[in-house]
Amino acid sequence: MNIVNDNFYSNKNLLKISVIIVVSFIVSTKNYLLFHTILEGWAVIISAIIYIIANRTYKHSKNNYLLFLGIAYLFVGILDFFHLITYKGLAIFDNLTANQPTQLWIAGRYLEAISLASAPYFINRKFSKQTVTLIYSLLTSFLIINIIWLKSFPDCFIQGDGLTSFKIISEYIISIILIAGIYNFYINKQNIRYSIYKLLLFSIIFTILSELSFTLYNDVYGVMNFIGHIFKLISYSLIFHEIVIKGIELPYDRICSELKKSAHTDSLTGLYNRKSFIEKLKDIYSRDKASPLVILMLDLDNFKMINDKYGHQTGDVVLQEFAQLIETNIRKSDMACRLGGDEFTVILRASEEETAQIIKRIRDSIKAWKEGDSTLKSLGVSIGSARLKDGYSIDDLIKEADNNMYEEKENKDYNYR
């Protein structure tokens, strides 16, 4: 059931699930062994895919609990695979009864339940992938050897008598562990995307329903056995869907978002860049020429002296501090940009009085900034402003602000020894 869009609960997906259930029921009535082989085979494949996706995308997602779930489901899938190949009627192992596949089922469900309940612990915690993989490898090997070859695992199904007390009690214990898992995810839901949280919640609920169904059958080919496997299929599909969304789509969404951000922001200062400046001006110019539009051009005077005397690393710090100073003294509705080098600009929707106040705040902050740092003694700032007038183009506006800024710079007399 390869459902990879974000809306698992869409009518289209619900229709798919309904069709799969109906077809599965028809197949089970004709050949239950075939139904079981297909369904458990698909569960094993899902487990392997979950591991591959969680493992291979970790360097992008950095999601520890998904990596933990991926490792866990790999080994749950291994137990499910042995459950599949030992199932009554396949005749791969001559000396086995219906007891061993039922034991492998219980072992797999214990491992799955404990893993789901433990996963929230790793939401904000790193762990050694090698160590966790080794622990699961040893535990899984121990269970398989004890069930198939040593036959020392407690009986779960006795031909003629049906399910043993150990098996039935185990299903209830597993359900309790899963309920604990629901609680663990609930108290950590603020750290999980809501859509992912819902998928996990429903996946665990369907796993619980599957466990409860398996307390009610007396025949490994019976109706309740069928229902339990269907619930398992839905649960695995929900987990698979979660891993696909979180493991593939979200990391690449984040990469695209970061690329988009880097295309519009200056990497050094975090301000918008020249491209964003031009785009914003064009947007305002095309939509709302009536509202007041002002741009400020700001240029650091003698910035080259800072670079030459103290080095480019110090120069970068000065640019970052100046950018922060600008942002601190403008309004949230204003837009500060770095055009390049030591040239900055601010887009304002402001009256003449408001513009003058903003410029004064910037100048006063620069004065205080310089007084607190002796390395800035030679530094100054030239500010030119321009207001959009009738008949002005964007180029005219930028040119006027530039000219006013350079005029102020030329009228200054810096005399440093």
TrEMBL record:
Cited InterPro entries: Diguanylate_Cyclase, GGDEF_dom, MASE3, Nucleotide_cyclase, Rev_trsase/Diguanyl_cyclase
Residue spans crossing the bilayer: 12-28, 34-53, 65-85, 105-124, 131-149, 169-187, 199-217, 223-245
Keywords: Membrane, Transmembrane, Transmembrane helix
Pfam families on file: GGDEF, MASE3
Sequence ranges assigned to domain GGDEF in this UniProt record: 291-417
GO terms for MF: diguanylate cyclase activity
Name of protein: Diguanylate cyclase (GGDEF) domain-containing protein
Native species: Orenia metallireducens
